[in-house]
Amino acid sequence: MSKELVFGHQNPDTDAITAAMAFSYLQNQLGYETEAVALGEPNDETKFALDHFDMKAPRVVKTVANEVDKVMLVDHNEPQQSVEDIDKVQVTHLVDHHRIANFNTAQPLWATVRPYGCVSTVIYELFEDKHIDIPANLAGMMLSAIISDTLLLKSPTTTDHDREAVKALAKIADVDYEDYGIKMLKAGTNLDAKSDNDIVDGDAKSFELNGSTIRIGQVNTVDLDDVFVRQTDLEKEMKSLMDQNGYDTFILIATNILNSDSDLLVVGDNTDKVEKAFGKKLNDAHRMNLPGVVSRKKQVVPPLTDAFEG
User: Fold this and answer.
1) Is the model's pLDDT at 32 over the cut of 70?
2) Is the pLDDT of residue 57 over 70?
3) Membrane spanning segments where (predicted)?
């Protein structure tokens, strides 16, 4: 059996990196030979979790076909969010919690896609199904991923599956998940240490919507003013990335993790469709307030998809 690489999406967040680590560990216990890798460096939040649980980040790769013939995907399926040479390898496994879009394979594959708040919750249940114990430090990372993706279980994407997994993983990792969770989330909101590129593109994903390429970034903060005091420079960076990559529209969502309040900033074309999606007008600063909107997956991409296809 040849070695396979396991990885999440570009600009990896805590879930993308953790899911690769967890699913690789699970598959190795089941007899596969795999290695977890990442399509980018861990962000500050993920570094906090890795340091807390004394774990090493997966190595970063730019391409995979030069190393392996087969790969396993976690936390994504859309090719524009994956490794650049994904079309040159066979995808044998997929574990995800997002929409399925533009995803085709030449061979059948092992796939588990569940509409949970976090893909690490899905992987937790796969461990349970196979009666395989999760090491304490890995359980801590999986707990961190769920806290990250669900904003400490406050996101509307949160399911009972996520809540049950958090309690079980916290017990294995021996941590108070609420106390730890606040500290971890705050670790990812130190905007003074982030460049303009880190803020607008550090957690960005591309989506193909009815022929337009939409780039959607999201940054967490404890004060929205900390983001938008830099708006002029952030817009310059967004426009530069659009020119470099051919994006039609660039959207940045800044989310206050303390009160679940978000502001959306848009640069480029299709502003009318953005307004249609959320039923609001952009102000003169190209922004709109979106109270209670914290999930790109559930509260941003679906209405935008409807607006672009309507």
Assistant:
1) yes
2) yes
3) none
In this structure, are residues 274 and 264 in contact, taking their beta carbons and an 8 Å threshold?
yes
Closest CA to 42 of 185, 202, 255, 151: 202
Element (H, E) at 15: helix 14-29
Residue pair 36/153 in contact (Cβ under 8 Å)? The answer is no
CB 250 within 8 A of CB 241: yes
Q: For residue 76, how far is the Cα from the chain centroid?
A: 8
The C-alpha atoms of residue 242 and residue 191 are separated, in whole angstroms, by 22
What confidence tens digit (pLDDT) does each residue in 88-136 have?
A: 999 999 999 999 999 999 999 999 999 999 999 999 999 999 999 999 9
State how far the Cα of 124 lies from the Cα of 154, in Å rounded to an integer: 20
205 Cβ neighbours under 8 A, 6+ residues apart: 9, 10, 11, 81, 215, 216, 296
From the list 165, 81, 156, 79, the residue with the least C-alpha distance to 122 is 165
The yes-or-no verdict on residue 258 having pLDDT over 90 is: no
Please give the Cα distance from 310 to 302 (Å, whole number). Answer: 12
Q: Nearest 5°: phi and psi at 7?
A: -155, 160
Q: What pLDDT was estimated at residue 310?
A: 77
Inter-residue contact 75 to 59 (CB < 8 Å): no
Residue 286: phi and psi, rounded to 5, are: 65, 30
Q: What is the pLDDT averaged over residues 237-246? A: 96
3-state secondary structure 231-253: HHHHHHHHHHHHHHHCCCEEEEE
Q: What is the mean pLDDT of residues 76-85?
A: 96
Q: Which residue has the higher pLDDT, 273 or 260?
A: 273
> For residue 53, how far is the Cα from the chain centroid?
20
288: which strand partners? Answer: 264
Q: What phi, psi does 60 have (nearest 5°)?
A: -95, 135
What are 284's two structure tokens?
Answer: 């003169």
